[in-house]
Amino acid sequence: LKTKRSPESLLNAFAETGDTNFLAEAVKNHSDNSLVQWTMLNQEISPEERAQWLEKLKVSSPDNALPNYLSALEDFKAGKTDQALAEINSASKKKVSSYEQERGVSREEMYLLSGFSPLEAKEKCDDGGGFPDLMRMKQLSQQISELQQRYKAAGDNDSNQELAAVEIEIGRKYSDPNTPYLINDL
Question: pTM surpassing 0.85?
Answer without folding.
Answer: no
